[in-house]
Amino acid sequence: MPVAIEQNVGVIAMKVPAYGKLFASGRLDGMREALGYSLSVPGVRCCVIAAENPQQLTENVAVARQFVPLEDAAMADIERRLASAWEDVTFYRAWT
Predict the structure, then answer these.
(1) Domain region containing 47
(2) To the nearest whole percent, how much of the chain has pLDDT over 70?
C-alpha cells in the first residue's frame, strides 16, 4: 500500500466480505462494516463486491452511498475481531 500511495495508484479491494465468511458469528455485523473497513484503508479507491440477487445488489449500493470513513477506533475493533479468522477468510488465496 505505501508504494501504491507513493505512486498515486489506486487500489481495488476484492472479496470484501470473503464470500460471506466475514459475517460468521463474532466477526462483522454486515456489509456496512466490511465495505466501510475496506474503503477506509488509505489507498483503496473502490471495491469489487458480488451480489447473489437483485435485493442484495440494492442493499450493497445503499451501503456504498452512505459510506463514511471509519474512525481509527472502529478500524482497530474490526481488526481485533477478525485477527483469529485470518486463515478461514483467506481461503481463496489457494486458487491462484
Answers:
(1) 2-88
(2) 89
